[in-house]
Specification:
The complex is a heterodimer. Chain A contains nine helices and no strands. Chain A is mainly α. In chain A, helix 6 crosses helix 7 and helix 6 packs parallel to helix 9. The longest helix of chain A has about 30 residues. Classes of the chains: A mainly alpha, B mainly alpha.
């Protein structure tokens, strides 16, 4: 399973390196949403710093939808599916591979957006370990859920509108827990991030397990 | 099924009428909430059906569909019926909760944990219905929808904890509280219990009706297909 996963992850990342959709489309979109949020809230440094945790995770969530659309589009053609089947790849391996490739992209996106938030929204981080752990756990959960829902959402022309409707409500706990963990990591924040990291870990674990078990039957259809 | 529908229909309506009579005229008002307390004979029962019965039924039927030994389209249709009727109960829960919230908290909507979780659940169920409308063959659609219902059911406890820790104004459970000491007695307790039975029966009746419509719609499709095939064969004979 892991060998297949690495094979699929390598393929997806190579496609991404060659096409650079993430770099030229997803990343600018994420930065644009941050700027638009700032325009909507007005140039008040205090308000922007207070809203930064929620805005950061909302930008990530919206960008993950785009990145996931792209990742599923690569797998979505009939020829690719037939090829994977003929090669005898383990469906759980395909799921993990796609998830790993998307995880690399989302982690890079989070890193760039985090720098943007720290600079533009004047946020001062005090608990880096909590912040990094929340980013990693949330990314795992988001990637697992978006690959799963992508395989549910069917054909390309419907997927573009259906995937956000299916994915965004399910990821509400990630938005809440991620924003709260971020809030607990900054100088103006309050509370402990431990319980929020717990929610992110459970979400990541549950959706990764569901993906390993159910991706095969879903792809058969 | 038709017999169950014939029995459940009048029974559930009778129980609901009895609930309304007891709730409005027999039970006393409350010291703090005055007449608004009568919403307790509608709102918790709707929430029970929407947040527990409908989800449990949709998840169980989806699981039975996904399990190869019990795989049958009837489970898919029952799950879909439970979700559709569940959406109606979720919306009713939100509306009656909003009216109660205006009376007790002074606002139509607040970012309370249970309100937020219920609203999220409504969107999750609407997503399921949207997925069901995607054109696909019945088996593919059933498999996708069963998975979506299971994912949603798994998400419910996570949403519950996340929003509960996030913010809660809502009172703790009146009957099934952590101390297991009901805070409601006498005629109020019996009417509350009756409301739970009445709304569960009403839900079961509506689900069966919806299921029958689904079955009839598909048998209609089969008849149309058979007619179309017969027409084609007839064309072949005449040419």
């Amino acid at each position: 399973m892991w060998r297949d996963a690495l094979l699929v992850a390598g393929r997806d990342l190579r496609i991404e390196l060659r096409t650079r959709v993430g770099l030229w489309q997803v990343l600018p979109f994420a930065l644009l949403t941050l700027l638009l949020f700032a325009f909507a809230l007005g140039p008040k440094p205090g308000l922007l710093a207070e809203a930064a945790p929620g805005l950061f995770w909302l930008s990530i969530l919206l960008s993950v939808v785009l990145a996931a659309q792209r990742s599923i589009a690569v797998e979505g053609t009939r020829a690719t599916r037939e090829g994977s089947r003929l090669l005898g790849l383990d469906p759980a391996g395909i799921f993990l591979g796609k998830m790993l490739a998307l995880l690399v992209e989302v982690l890079l996106l989070e890193a760039v957006l985090l720098v943007g938030v720290l600079i533009v929204f004047h946020v001062l981080v005090t608990a880096w370990a909590t912040l990094i752990a929340s980013c990693v756990l949330a990314a795992i959960g988001l990637c697992a859920a978006s690959i799963l829902y992508g395989s549910l959402a069917g054909e390309a022309r419907i997927r573009a509108t259906l995937l956000p409707v299916l994915l965004l409500p399910i990821t509400a706990p990630v938005l809440i827990a991620g924003a709260k963990a971020f809030d607990a990591s900054v100088v103006t924040g309050s509370g402990s991030g431990a319980r929020w990291l717990g929610i992110l870990a459970v979400f990541a674990l549950v959706y990764t397990a569901l993906g390993i078990v159910l991706y095969g039957p879903l792809e058969e259809s | 099924m038709n017999r169950a529908i014939r029995i459940l229909g009048p029974t559930s309506i009778l129980l609901c009428v009895l609930d309304v009579i007891l709730g409005l005229w027999v039970t006393p008002d409350d010291e703090n909430q005055l007449e608004y307390v009568r919403l307790v004979y509608i709102h918790p029962a709707e929430a029970w059906v929407a947040l527990y019965v409908a989800i449990a039924m949709a998840a169980l039927c989806s699981l039975l569909y996904l399990w190869k030994r019990t795989r049958s389209l009837k489970w898919d249709r029952l799950a879909a019926s439970a979700v559709e009727v569940g959406v109606v109960f979720i919306l009713l829960t939100l509306v009656t909760g909003s009216i109660w919230g205006r009376a007790t908290w002074g606002v139509w909507w607040t970012w309370d944990a249970r309100l937020t979780a219920t609203a999220l659940l409504a969107v999750l169920f609407l997503g399921y219905i949207a997925l069901r409308r995607v054109p696909a063959d019945p088996e593919t659609r059933a498999r996708r929808c069963a998975a979506a219902a299971l994912f949603a059911a798994v998400d419910v406890p996570i949403v519950h904890f996340a929003v509960n820790w996030w913010n809660t104004l809502h009172q703790s459970a009146t009957v099934l509280n952590p101390n297991l000491k009901p805070r409601i007695h006498g005629s109020m307790a019996w009417t509350l219990l009756l409301s739970f039975i009445a709304f569960t029966a009403l839900f079961a009746w509506m689900v069966l009706l919806r299921y029958r419509i689904e079955v009839n719609a598909h048998s209609g499709e089969d008849v149309e297909l058979a007619d179309a095939l017969a027409e084609r064969r007839a064309e072949g004979v005449t040419s």
